[in-house]
Amino acid sequence: MDNAQTTVSAPAITAMRRIDGGTFAMGSEQFYADEGPVHEVAVDPFEMDVHPVTTEQFAEFVARTGYVTTAERSLPADDFPDLTPQERSAGALVFQQTPGPVPLSEWRQWWRWVTGADWRHPFGPLDAEGNGTTPDRSRHPVVQVSFEDASRYAGWAGKRLPTEAEWEFAARGGLDGRTYAWGDELHPGGTLMANTWQGRFPFLNEGADGWRGTSPVGWFPPNGYGLSDMIGNVWEWTVTPYATRHAVEACCVGSVDPDADGRRVLKGGSHLCAPEYCLRYRPAARSPQSDDTSTTHIGFRCARSL
Q1: pLDDT confidence of residue 133
Q2: How many angstroms separate the CA atoms of 256 and 253, rounded?
Q3: Exposed, middle or buried, 220 (CB in 10 Å: 0-12/13-18/19+)?
């Protein structure tokens, strides 16, 4: 079915939490340069999904609309004449653990393009073990979804994607100025609070509470607003165009970086975040990503204005 002519059907009810809004100190000056400057932001009341959209929920959207995701579309030969048919084939980026230490500046050591990788088969036609079976990820966050895919789902569900300011306000759970969504201690009382990389990236992963890769939504403790997986598990799309520094005068959406060119702000970090490589499992952390990107560690959740 043509993506521009999808049939709207009522989606299954997804739990949301009302966020009353308010003023908070957005950003951080302690970690990465693009998180600053710290500035005061006012957020209007809104609602936020309790957890990221799951594979099961996204499957309902596809079943009712016939939507075809970015990763499932081949590149047009006229637009990419220098690529081979295989290089233009549908697929997406897949994380692959390395056999040993590699330079952390060489991201291609652990990311590879896999033909046939999509939201149904995040690692390609064969699963991570290569045995031809697909694990049950119905309650895991849907991955291999681009910004367009996430936006289309949100519109179908009668919602929208959050702004970066809304997302960060919600992730803090009422703890303004704290390092993590649960306070300033990474593992309070020895408790693992989020699904992040445990071990030495990208070759040794001991698993977050047994999960190597995504975990089912709600597996780890919710924050002060009752929202699960705001930190770790998967990066989440926002509608905000990426800028290399926060624009204080534009509190809600920021200014567009002239070099951004179709990049949006991702928030929350993922199961691949490790302190020696990506210490971004914090509310203030952010990452730029091209709108058409689909990977095994990016998902989304929806918001709704009040």
Answers
A1: 53
A2: 9
A3: buried
- 269 burial class (0-12, 13-18, 19+ CB within 10 angstroms)? buried
Report CA-CA distances (Å) from 240 to 147, 246, 255, 262, 287: 11, 11, 9, 10, 11
Amino acid at 183: G
5 within some domain:
no
Residues 6+ apart with CB under 8 A from 114: 91, 92, 93, 94, 123, 124
Q: How many domains in the chain?
A: 1
What's the pLDDT score for residue 10? Answer: 47
pLDDT attached to residue 78: 79
Alpha helices in the chain (DSSP H): 55-65, 147-156, 164-172
Asked if residue 9 belongs to a domain, the reply is: no
Residues of the chain with pLDDT below 50 are: 1-10, 129-132, 250-259
Domain span at 185:
14-306
Distance from C-alpha of 102 to C-alpha of 122, rounded to nearest angstrom:
24
Amino acid at 51: H
- The answer to whether residue 176 sits within a structural domain is yes
Residues 187 and 193: beta-carbon distance below 8 Å: yes
Residues 6+ apart with CB under 8 A from 8: 65, 156
CATH number of the structural domain spanning residue 103: 3.90.1580.10
